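Re: the multi-chain job from yesterday

Posting the exact lines I submitted so nobody has to dig through the queue logs.
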Amino acid sequence: MARWQPHASERLVVAALELFEERGYENTTVIEIAERAGLTKSTFFRHFPDKREVLFGGGTMTGLVAAGIDAAPAAAGPLEAVAHALDVIGKEAFTPDRREFGARRSAVIDANPELREREALKGLSLTASMIDALKRRGVPELTSRVAAELGALAWKIAYDRWSDTATSDDFGELARQALSEVRAASTLC
Amino acid sequence: MARWQPHASERLVVAALELFEERGYENTTVIEIAERAGLTKSTFFRHFPDKREVLFGGGTMTGLVAAGIDAAPAAAGPLEAVAHALDVIGKEAFTPDRREFGARRSAVIDANPELREREALKGLSLTASMIDALKRRGVPELTSRVAAELGALAWKIAYDRWSDTATSDDFGELARQALSEVRAASTLC
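And the result, structure tokens for all chains:
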């Protein structure tokens, strides 16, 4: 067994982002990412299945979202439960100290079709995770699907605003604002 | 130049579906699909960029959806314009004679992760095409995004019901029904 490496996952993510910025996603290998992080290729593969996955944090987000919806007050309606989950994301993942990293990550993803594709699929698995969590609260199937789609859209809007380094609001507040805008827009459809 | 082959695209799609059913998606090659259709590999690649694409009809659907939204009456609201587009899809693509094919196609896609992934990405490009078409009608950005998400969800629900060979309603009617259910659910979120 290899020794446990403290913060190996974060070091690999930072190294990957730097290399993707410097020489492009296609021109970076897993070995180079591991070397930049001072780790080995096999350590990389204990954390991520492939190079494409390194900017997407495995299943962390889907787990946080599900836990956030599960923990919402029993009286909360579907979108209120989603807002609760987005607050959790703001506290656990999209913290103020990660905003600049978020902006750089978005720029790298936008520049590469393979990464854009992976991000789109991650978005769909987040939506699926929200649907399952809402159904566990007793929300009917169709209402769960609609609330998850609206929640996912609010998430994207809030993330774009949050990772724009000109803003200083926290992610949870931006998400609540986006959710209320999305809800208002849905009445105009 | 190769001779023009009548209905080459449809023949390739039918051949691919048969082979995927018989031996599985992974165990089927492009050459085998072309042979089954009585065509050559180079004819296949004039119609589809790769094996994964053969069940997804290139850009036909995105074009039909955009044209359907463009052609909706000027007074139609966003979801009414989407309903108009789904009517067009029902008349041009999801016609009653293709229902059984649709059910078989769904079964093959459900059985393969690569095809499910491609289908998910196609769904996203359909949503993007709806957003662009709604914005061309002067619908504000956020309302266009919400209407497209709700429209895409209604589409999926209607397609699942339509390709269930027990139903006999036409796709346009199923889509209007699904849109009104989705709209009602959005008021409960």
